[in-house]
């Protein structure tokens, strides 16, 4: 079988390194390229076009390391989020404690799929001008930024009281 007909090796290496890091009691972190189409990560934590995600079992829920993407639930700044990372966006996996891990080389299948997704995305953007927005079940706080509205809440008055119970 020719190398061009083979499936990409990135998901297999990623799962192998993930298991190896966990077996050695290390904390696996992913380096993800946030500019890849189809990615769903908290962009407010991205720096220089990348985000580092802790994918240790105690940090994420429902982790799925699939052949096409990585999916999990996690809290960012106390807010629960669902994270979706296409395999093309994964740049590296490493241990937080000592940096052991690997960077992934570009693979032709991921380059082709990113271009194909980008082409369909550009065609769809001509039809609709709506962008990505955060969907939440909480109502946003309304503020009119008038004078006196920015006052912090008053702390409780009086001396704190603790009672020793034996």
From TrEMBL:
Domain of life of the organism encoding this protein: Bacteria
Biased composition annotated in UniProt, kind: Acidic residues: 137-152
UniProt keyword Hydrolase, yes or no: yes
Cellular component per GO, a single term: cytosol
Protein name: Stringent starvation protein B
NCBIfam families: PRK11798.1-1, PRK11798.1-2, PRK11798.2-5
Family under the similarity heading: Belongs to the SspB family.
Record keywords, A-Z: Hydrolase, Protease
Organism: Limnobaculum eriocheiris
Pfam families reported for this sequence: SspB
Positions of the UniProt region annotated as Disordered: 116-166
Entries under InterPro entries matching the protein: SspB, SspB-like_sf
Gene Ontology MF, one: peptidase activity
Keyword RNA-binding applies: no
GO biological process: positive regulation of protein catabolic process; proteolysis
């Amino acid at each position: 079988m020719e190398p061009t007909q083979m499936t990409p090796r990135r998901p297999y290496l990623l799962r192998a390194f993930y298991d190896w890091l966990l077996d050695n009691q290390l904390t696996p972190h992913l380096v993800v390229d946030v500019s890849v189409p189809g990615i769903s990560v908290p962009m407010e934590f991205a720096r220089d076009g990348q985000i580092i995600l802790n994918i240790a079992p105690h940090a994420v829920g429902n982790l799925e390391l699939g052949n096409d993407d990585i999916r999990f639930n996690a809290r960012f700044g106390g807010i629960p989020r669902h994270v979706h990372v296409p395999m093309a966006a994964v740049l590296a996996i490493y241990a937080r404690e000592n940096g052991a891990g690997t960077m992934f080389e570009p693979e032709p299948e991921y380059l082709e799929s990113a271009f194909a997704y980008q082409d369909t995305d550009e065609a769809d953007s001509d039809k609709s001008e709506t962008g990505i927005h955060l969907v939440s079940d909480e109502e946003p706080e309304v503020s009119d930024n008038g004078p006196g509205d920015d006052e912090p809440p008053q702390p409780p008055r009086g001396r704190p009281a603790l009672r020793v119970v034996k």
